[in-house]
Design a protein that fits this description.
Layout: E1 14-18, H1 22-32, E2 37-41, H2 47-58, H3 65-74, E3 77-80, E4 95-98, H4 103-115, E5 120-122, E6 135-139, E7 142-146, H5 153-166, H6 171-188, H7 192-209, H8 215-226
Length: about 230
């Protein structure tokens, strides 16, 4: 049976990763795009994860103080150099990723998480997972996940490549523009059907042009829908 693709806001939420090798690194790299507060627990942690942890607390000098504080809070990666303890789950993290080398220990941790109703993923062991990692396209506010439920991971990768070719190069700028226009459209076009039609037409034009509309282009479009 296919898996339902829930999308979850993990910005600033605690995530626990058990393991410090290449599989843990891959999960840290993918999760960091969405700004959680990650804890990595392992007796041995690879240099690449250590570098990511160092970068997560440096911030950027050119940021305003408030922005710097926010970034430091939501992009923190904490390293704990020891073996996993059951008490590590006492804080009830939003999710747990298990990427250790011992399958029996991985299964034990999975069962502990399920007893506490903490969503858990055991790398490459779907029977012990509550959720899986899809082939992911992430660009600004756009997130696209592709999952074949283990039937053919290679197919998921191929579909991802094909879909990426269809996405406009400036999709992040386009989505920011469309988000900014929503309040104005809501105020000016009160009829629901016309408003939906305008949203669709505006998105279609931006996607075709691969850019936000100029103000005269927008006014011409909205004028057509206001008639």
């Amino acid at each position: 049976m296919a898996l339902f693709p829930f999308f979850m806001d993990i910005c600033g939420k605690e995530g626990l990763i058990v393991g410090g090798g290449k599989h843990a690194l891959e999960k840290v790299q993918r999760l960091a795009l969405f700004s959680p507060c990650l804890k990595v627990i392992a007796s041995g942690i690879c240099p690449e994860i250590e570098s990511l942890a160092e970068e997560s607390v440096k911030g950027h000098p050119e940021m305003a103080e408030k922005e710097y504080i926010e970034q430091a809070l939501v992009r923190r990666i904490t390293l704990i150099r020891r073996d996993f303890c059951e008490s590590d789950l006492d804080s009830l993290p939003a999710f747990v990723i298990v990427a250790g080398d011992d399958p029996e220990e991985n299964h034990r941790i999975s069962e502990l998480c399920r007893e506490r109703r903490i969503p858990v993923n055991v790398v490459d062991d779907q029977a012990y997972c509550d959720f899986v990692f899809p082939s992911l396209i992430a660009r600004g506010d756009l997130s696209v996940g592709i999952c074949t439920n283990g039937a053919s991971p290679g197919t998921g990768v191929l579909l991802k490549r094909k879909m990426e070719q269809q996405i406009p190069d400036h999709i992040e700028e386009i989505l920011d523009y469309l988000k900014g226009k929503r309040p104005e459209i809501t105020a000016r076009v009160t009829e629901r059907k016309k408003r939906f039609s305008l949203y669709y037409a505006l998105s279609e034009m931006c996607m075709e042009l691969d850019r936000p509309l100029t103000e005269p282009e927008f006014e011409e479009l909205i004028g057509q829908k206001e008639r």
